[in-house]
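Sequence only, no structure available. Ideas?
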Amino acid sequence: MWGKPPWFISDNFGVAVRNLSRGRDWYKEKLGLHEAKTNREEDSGLPFVDLQISKGDSCITLVEAEPGSSAADTRPILFTKNLEKARQWFSDRGVAVGPMQGDSGGNQFFQFTDLDGNNIEVCVEP
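Reply:
I predicted one. Tokens follow.
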């Protein structure tokens, strides 16, 4: 329905969520991800799901956080070749996106927050 997203996952990363089922549904709906067919076990022993854009792509692993645990202080990064197009794509899907920003290294990016308050950055590098 939405086509391939204008961004990509450059390397596998994990995100802690409070409710795995709700998190999986949100990432599938808002980011257009699909469940990866893997037979691996999560090192922590916690419930998890691997999500990816297309078969063979890098994954976002959602891990159900232990009750009472605090959010991780990490900021996963997605990449794009066209930052404005990616920002509009997320916005069109109902994701609250932050303003375009730049850092001292010349990177341009924006951020959004998932339903558990995890900050995710979308970056285009010069």
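The longest helix spans residues 20-31.
Hope that gets you unstuck.
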